[in-house]
Amino acid sequence: MQYLTMNDGNKIPQLGYGVFQMSSADVEKHLSEAIAAGYTHIDTANAYYNEVAVGKAIKASGAKREDLFVTSKLFPQDYPYQKCKAAIDATLERLDMDYLDLLLFHQPYGEYVDGWRAMEEAVREGKVRSIGLSNFNERKIRQILDVATIRPAVIQVEINPRWNQHSLKAAFADEHFVWEGWYPLGHGDKELLAMPVFKELGEKYGKTAAQIILRWHMQEGNVVFPKTLNPQHMADNADIFDFKLTDDEMAAINWIPQKPYYTVPDEAPAWVWGPNDYSQQA
Ligand SMILES: NC(=O)c1ccc[n+]([C@@H]2O[C@H](COP(=O)([O-])OP(=O)(O)OC[C@H]3O[C@@H](n4cnc5c(N)ncnc54)[C@H](OP(=O)(O)O)[C@@H]3O)[C@@H](O)[C@H]2O)c1
């Protein structure tokens, strides 16, 4: 496994397993398979409603807590300072853990500036090792930087060959953020996977299109946690460390016209403020 070092000195595995849109039953089955296959980095969120199952799969795996890297994320209803403190404790309780490796604000709405203080306190209290932001744009990241006494270590945004985030990354080159990419395989977009550049490079290296894309992520310096329920894909996605794309091949992938799959609105869409009783998990 390759690790990156974050701006707070902690290390993060560059490849992991994401559990977005997975039921608790799916998590218990497939996350257990992923841990058995050697995945050590798990990305979940309060809003995935499967943290209890993540905790159970981890316990059942027999893996040592210190050998795993576990991320969760809070939703905007829980950003106000007092609520944020309670939400962090509730997250640990659902996961049945003493600490999180990484905690993110999931969406850039509501009282995130106020809540950041609670995130910093959680680090000082040992409840969380690293903190960061997800889906925040440049202006909103700077609002956090203006108040931070502990700077975000990680920014998680959509990243894939169709949306490489080079300009957002360049805007924060001095911060040494670790960039995590969601939709690393375009959410499984068949048109992306069928692009000739990935087919040609796959033939050259004896790899699938998905493996070429994941290798591109590694060389771009991104952290990714592709989601899969397919054991072959799970094995393939981890088998990307025995070859290297050339600079020209990286450039060819970076020529792909840029367009995000999802544009994060500046104002909160209505669904953000929907029900969020995370104690209700099947
Ligand atoms: N912060 C945020 O707002 C946010 C948003 C979205 C996602 N995320 C995180 O990012 C993770 C990944 O995103 P995602 O799950 O939406 O998208 P993704 O990982 O880009 O794509 C998942 C899809 O790709 C397919 N796939 C996986 N490996 C494959 C392979 N080797 N070959 C062909 N197809 C493959 C899977 O199908 P099979 O099951 O058939 O393999 C699945 O349909 C999530 O699980 C979550 O942890 C965060």
Largest sheet: 8 strands, parallel
CATH architecture: Alpha-Beta Barrel
User: What multimeric state do the chains show?
Assistant: single chain
Strand content: 5-15%
- Rounded to an integer in angstroms, the radius of gyration calculated over CA atoms is 18 Å
The tally of beta strands, per DSSP, is 10
SSE pattern: EEEHEHEHEHEHEHEHHHEHH
Text of the CATH class: Alpha Beta
User: What percent of the residues sit in helical stretches (DSSP H or I)?
Assistant: 25-40%
Q: Helix count, per DSSP?
A: 11
Family: Belongs to the aldo/keto reductase family.
Protein name: NADP-dependent oxidoreductase domain-containing protein
Pfam families: Aldo_ket_red
GO molecular function: oxidoreductase activity, acting on the CH-OH group of donors, NAD or NADP as acceptor
Label this structure with key terms.
single chain, binds NADP nicotinamide-adenine-dinucleotide phosphate, 282 residues, 39% helix, TIM Barrel, alpha/beta
Structure, described:
This protein has 282 residues and is an alpha/beta fold. The chain has a single domain (3-273), classed as TIM Barrel (Alpha-Beta Barrel), CATH 3.20.20.100. 39% of the residues lie in helices and 15% in strands. The chain contains eleven helices and ten strands. The strands form two sheets. The chain has an eight-stranded parallel sheet with strand order 3-4-5-6-7-8-9-10. A hairpin with a 5-residue loop joins β1 (3-5) and β2. α1 runs parallel beside α2, α3 crosses α4 and α8 (196-205) packs across α9. The radius of gyration is 18 Å and the shape is globular. Bound molecules: NADP nicotinamide-adenine-dinucleotide phosphate. Residues 18-20, 43, 106, 134-135, 156, 182-188, 208, 210, 225-230, 233, 236-237 line the site of NADP nicotinamide-adenine-dinucleotide phosphate. NADP nicotinamide-adenine-dinucleotide phosphate binds next to α10. The active site is at residue 48. Keywords: NADP, Oxidoreductase. The record marks 73 as: Lowers pKa of active site Tyr. This is NADP-dependent oxidoreductase domain-containing protein. GO terms for molecular function: oxidoreductase activity, acting on the CH-OH group of donors, NAD or NADP as acceptor.
